[in-house]
Amino acid sequence: MLDLLIIDDEKDICDVLESLFTEAGYTVKTANDANAATKIIASETPALLICDITMPGRSGIQLLEAQRETLHPFAVVMLTAHAESEMIISALRLGALDYIVKPFDSDSLLKRVPAWLEVGKRIKALRDSSSSSPALAEQQMKMIELFRLKNYKETKASA
Q1: Backbone φ, ψ for residue 73 (5° rounding)
Q2: Which of 21, 79, 125, 139 could serve as 52's disulfide partner, Cβ 3.0–4.6 Å?
Q3: How many domains would you assign to the chain?
Q4: Model confidence, pTM
């Protein structure tokens, strides 16, 4: 299973994050635009997408909107070079778990990834079992929404 899919139009950012996460033991793929990411998503099941908010062509926000409309949602963390609260709050409202501001601290980032991956794995389990266990699916969704709400409130409070 693919742990992380990193989507950023800056190849250097993709390379740095791929190296960081691979060295930490995660399976990682990268894409330099939303279309390439969509092809990877169609053939593999990443537990977590780390996606730049602003990219040429389809933005990270548009990718987040599209994945939200599918029957197969993913755990998504947004990357941004601009800590503008409106963009971040918009992403969190659309279901992003969290966000990373560039430049980022590698150690801090590595500490946050396990929680994000746990949510991603819960979402995957939810996708895989929702038809066989509606009660479990509802319980898992509530836990995921609580995680998202906590991050949304923390972001709004710091804005």
Answers
A1: -70, 160
A2: 79
A3: 1
A4: 0.80
Q: Are 94 and 66 in contact (CB under 8 A)?
A: no
Residue 121: the pLDDT is 84
Q: What is the pLDDT of residues 48-64, one digit of tens each?
A: 999 999 888 888 888 88
Whether 27 contacts 2, CB under 8 Å = yes
Unique residue bearing structure tokens 């990682």:
28
Q: What is the arrangement of strands in the sheet containing 48-52, beginning at the earlier edge strand?
A: 28-31, 4-7, 48-52, 75-80, 98-101
The CATH number of the domain where 115 resides is what?
A: 3.40.50.2300
| Pairing of β 28-31 and β 48-52 | unpaired
DSSP per position, the chain: ---EEEE-S-HHHHHHHHHHHHHTT--EEEESSHHHHHHHHHHS--SEEEEES--SSS-HHHHHHHHHHSSS--EEEEEESS--HHHHHHHHHTT--EEEESS--HHHHHHHHHHHHHHHHHHHHHHHHTTT-HHHHHHHHHHHHHHHHHHHHHHHHH-
Q: How many CA atoms lie within 13 A of 137 on its CB side?
A: 10
